[in-house]
Every structure is written in C-alpha cells, then in structure tokens.
Amino acid sequence: CESLNFWNDIMGEHAEFIDGMLDPTEKDLRKKARAFAKKFEKLVEVCIKTAERQILQESIEDTKGIIDFKRASTEGLLQCKIKSIIPPLLADHVLREANHYLRLLTMLKR
Using CA atoms, how far apart are residues 86 and 12, in angstroms rounded to an integer? Predict the structure, then answer.
C-alpha cells in the first residue's frame, strides 16, 4: 500500500489546497474539493487496514473523478469563469500529476 498511500495522500492534499485557494463564493467547487479530500483520506486509512488489491479499483475510480474535477477547474480558470487565486500553471500541474497517478494505477492493476 505504500505507493497507493503516497499518491492518494497527494491527491487529497491537492483537493485541500484547491479548496483553500478558491474564492469563498465558489461554494459548489469548494464542496466538491472537500469531498475529494475526504475520499482520498479514507482510501489511505482503508489501505493501511486491508490488502492493496481491495483498494486499487476504488483508487482508480476516485482518481478519474478528481481528474474530471481538475480538468473542469483548469478550463474554468483559463476562461475566467472561476474566482480563485490558483495560478493556471499550478492547476495544470496538479491535473498532470493526477493523470500520471492514473497511469501508475493502471499498470498496478495488470
């Protein structure tokens, strides 16, 4: 579970700082970010208690979800539709990290 926990922790941290850097008026996006933070925190806790294979599929599903969230957020930032202090380059960086993690998860599943 070491590799899964490392990356799930990073995905959770991304969600937490996205929540903190969004404008307070972006209530729906902040709520989604907090929900992702909780999901990834739970994945870390569960992985410690169970076998790695049991948590792998859930990690894949949640990572796909946060990729969609990050992609939509990055597009919203670039189109000036989201109020935030997140630099677009940082938004793109965390999206690329999530895509990298999904590739790693896919290789682990084989």
Answer: 16
Please give the domain boundaries of the chain with CATH numbers for all domains. Answer: 2-109 (1.20.1260.120)
Q: Return the residue matching tokens 């999904």.
A: 102
DSSP H or E run through 4: helix 2-21
How far is the C-alpha of 9 from the C-alpha of 90, rounded, in Å?
18
> In this predicted model, what pLDDT tens digit does every residue of 37-93 receive, in sequence order?
999 999 998 887 776 777 888 999 999 999 999 999 999 999 999 999 999 999 999
Triad 3, 32, 61: Cα angle to 5°: 40
